[in-house]
Specification:
Blueprint lengths: L5 E5 L4 H12 L4 E6 L11 H4 L9 E2 L2 H5 L4 E4 L3 H14 L2 E4 L6 H10 L4 E4 L5 H16 L5 E8 L9 H14 L3 H4 E2 L14 E7 L5 E9 L2 E9 L3 H13 L6 E3 L1 H4 L4
Parallel strand pairs: 1-2, 1-4, 2-3, 4-5, 5-6, 6-12, 7-9, 8-9
Antiparallel strand pairs: 7-10, 10-11
Helix pairs in contact: 1-9, 4-5, 6-7
Length: 270
């Protein structure tokens, strides 16, 4: 493995993009070699450090993803589904590890990522934190231990600018609960209660999304049956934990074979 793998950060003008840049710059194990923004963005062609309001970094913001990726061993990407699948094709051409924190994918996006993963390492997770990934494991174990007489509800809260619901993390938890029960989440997911919906269907997994203020991320899994309830919960108060997880994934992926991985693989929990 290269001593200091080079990293390109996509969407560098956003809050998460800027946080990722700062963490890479502070890292002793990775170096920043590229900064990507959409064409005609105000930052395009500018020194990244100056665009962020600080000293020059010697890295120019570009919209040419292929050129940027050709210099990199890793791409860290918290953007949007359409952009991410396009980046996946280019990262695969460059044989760069593609760390994806983007959420809101549909099945067509996931198929594109699967194709790209034949040629390069893709590490995708709805949440990069250690705590959430432990919560995912616990959720699967609890769901496996309890039968369908225990209703499962997943409640998540995020800031008022989040554009997708349920969150990627909530869906991770739903997938974990469904896997614990040996069923497909698509068959038991209940996301749209409004009006006279009738009684809750036995075995369904319910989702509820709260949006408000500057909430970084809260996720709660409720197991409820007659006379008792089990609740497990994770609260994130600082989004830097997602950046730290992404950097850990970028390093972990350097010596891996092409394929699709997640943070459970990175953390040795699979």
């Amino acid at each position: 493995m290269i001593d200091q793998p080079g990293v390109v950060v996509t969407g560098v003008s956003g809050r998460m993009g800027q946080m990722l840049v700062r963490h890479v710059m502070d890292s002793d194990h990775l170096k920043l070699v590229g900064a990507l923004e959409r064409p005609d963005h105000d930052w395009e062609g500018r020194d990244l450090g100056e665009a962020m309001g600080g000293a020059a970094l010697g890295v120019t913001v570009t919209s040419d993803a292929l050129e940027a990726f050709s210099k990199a061993q890793a791409v860290i990407d918290f953007t949007a589904p359409d952009a991410t699948v396009a980046f996946a094709d280019l990262a695969a051409q460059a044989r760069a590890v593609h760390v994806i924190g983007t959420t809101g994918f549909d099945q067509s996006h996931l198929e594109r990522l699967k194709i790209a993963a034949r040629h390069a390492v893709i590490i995708r997770a709805g949440n990069m934190s250690l705590g959430v990934n432990l919560l995912t494991k616990v959720t699967a174990q609890v769901a496996a231990a309890l039968d369908a007489d225990w209703d499962i509800e997943i409640v998540e809260a995020h800031h008022n600018r989040k554009v997708d619901a349920p969150s990627g993390t909530a869906l991770m938890l739903g997938e974990a609960a469904a896997a614990g029960r040996g069923v497909s989440l698509d068959d038991v997911s209940d996301r749209g209660r409004d009006g006279i919906t009738g009684a809750r269907k036995r075995g369904d997994i319910g989702f509820h999304a709260i949006r408000g203020g500057d909430v970084v991320g809260e996720h709660e899994v409720i197991f409820a049956t007659g006379g008792e309830r089990i609740t497990i919960k994770h609260l994130a108060s600082d989004r830097s934990l997602f950046a730290r997880g992404a950097l850990k994934a970028a390093l972990w992926g350097q010596d891996k074979m092409p394929g699709e991985y997640d943070m459970l693989d990175v953390l040795g929990l699979n």
